[in-house]
Amino acid sequence: MSDAKERIDALVKSNDVVLFMKGTALFPQCGFSSRAVAILDHLGSKYETVDVLQDQEIRQGIKEYSDWPTIPQLYVKGEFVGGSDIMMEMFESGELQQLVDAKAA
Amino acid sequence: MPMRAEDIEAMIVAAIPDARVEIRDLAGDGDHYAARVVSESFAGMNRVRQHQAVYAALKGKMGGELHALQLETAIPSGDHK
To answer: Do the chains contact at B48 and A85, CB–CB below 8 Å?
Structure first.
């Protein structure tokens, strides 16, 4: 595993809910990342964010790690959940709340 | 470099022949699209795999040339909408 992959692996495995995004939760730098943060805020569970704009290796590495071409990307308890469109669909159906609550228990 | 909606649709249909594709140009700038893709081939795939199949059809343009494509996938007479 490359250095970036190892670092991503550690982030994904050490945080129950982690969002790879552009910018920070307070200052998202892209509309899709902003939407993802708004969804997580609504869920009311604790989450970590990783700003890929601060780290080119992570920015490229996460796309390969997940086989997913865009940012943001959400991981819950080590599993890739999807990007902001899937997050929105799952949020509206209540699935995302269930997933996050189950993992937090 | 923006892509035309017809080109996006053509690439998706080339890879997923039975796909019904609806594309909306969200901002009228040829750079921010929403697509709904409906195909029998998505049966048995979870959402991540369905989206990955569409991204694969776009052969690396997603996240590069194509910055913004909101994506919704479904199976015909499927489980929602």
So the answer is: no
Residue B71: which of A67, A80, A85 has the nearest Cβ?
A85
Which CATH code for domain A3-104?
3.40.30.10
Domain with residue B36: its CATH number is 3.30.300.90
Q: Is residue B51 within 8 angstroms of chain A, CB to CB?
A: yes
Interchain contact, B48 vs A82, CB within 8 Å:
yes
Residue numbers of the domain that contains B34? 5-74
Contact B80 A93 (CB under 8 A): yes
Tens of pLDDT, residue by residue over A52-96, are 999 999 999 999 999 999 999 999 999 999 999 999 999 999 999
In whole angstroms, give the CA distance from residue B72 to residue B53.
Answer: 12
Alpha-carbon distance A78 to A83, whole Å? Answer: 15
Q: Is residue B79 part of a domain?
A: no
**In this predicted complex, what is the ipTM?**
0.81
What share of chain A in percent tops pLDDT 70?
96
Instruction: Please report whether residue B49 resides in a domain.
Output: yes
| pLDDT at residue B20, as a whole number | 96
Q: Do residues B34 and B26 touch, judged by C-beta distance below 8 A?
A: yes
Q: What φ, ψ does residue A76 adopt, rounded to 5°?
A: -120, 120
Summary mean pLDDT of chain A: 94
| Structure token pair of residue B42 | 């998505």
